[in-house]
Design brief:
This protein has 139 residues and is mainly alpha-helical. The protein has one domain: 3-Layer(aba) Sandwich (Rossmann fold), CATH 3.40.50.1010. It has 7 helices and 3 strands; from the N terminus they run βααβααααβα. It has a 3-stranded parallel sheet with strand order 2-1-3. α1 (7-14) crosses α3 (45-52) and α5 (78-93) crosses α6 (100-112). The longest helix has 16 residues, at 78-93. The two termini are 17 Å apart.
Length: 139
């Protein structure tokens, strides 16, 4: 199964220094690297936008940009946005606040049969309403 990687994971991999990672974060990076080797990593444009936003140094921005360009975005269609709105409405009806980026990740994963690799706890809440699959690290 392919895995849609959330911004929280990309950030650990591309924006953090390995020496600054704790044991859990290192295991997450190792899992990401295995998924890359298996050619199972997927992304979407909103994740790319989130990851590249807020990088202060141009050199770091260009480094992250170059690394991220190795991964093509999944094509997002009008029906994906419409279905994401329906997912958001379902969550909000159950009292769960949503991030539009997160809910688009959920919808794309659902629509394409991907699991979601994230450290963002909000996805645990989405999973209470949406039948998303969260990727569990094998490390």
């Amino acid at each position: 199964m392919n895995v849609l990687v959330d911004t929280s994971i990309w950030s650990l991999v591309f924006r953090r220094k390995p020496a600054d990672l704790n044991a859990f974060e290192k295991s997450i990076v190792a899992e990401f690297e295995e998924l890359v080797k298996e050619e199972r990593v997927r992304t979407i444009g909103i994740v790319r936008l989130e990851l590249l936003t807020g990088i202060k140094l141009l050199a770091q921005y260009e480094k992250v940009l170059a690394l991220l360009r190795e991964f093509q975005d999944e094509l997002i269609t009008t029906s994906d946005y419409e279905a994401a709105a329906k997912c958001a409405n379902s969550c909000m009806a159950k009292g769960i606040a949503v991030s539009l980026a997160d809910i688009l990740i959920c919808e794309v994963a659902l629509n394409r049969g991907f699991s979601i690799f994230t450290t963002d706890a909000d996805f645990q809440n989405y999973a209470k309403v949406l039948p998303i699959r969260l990727h569990v690290s094998r490390q």
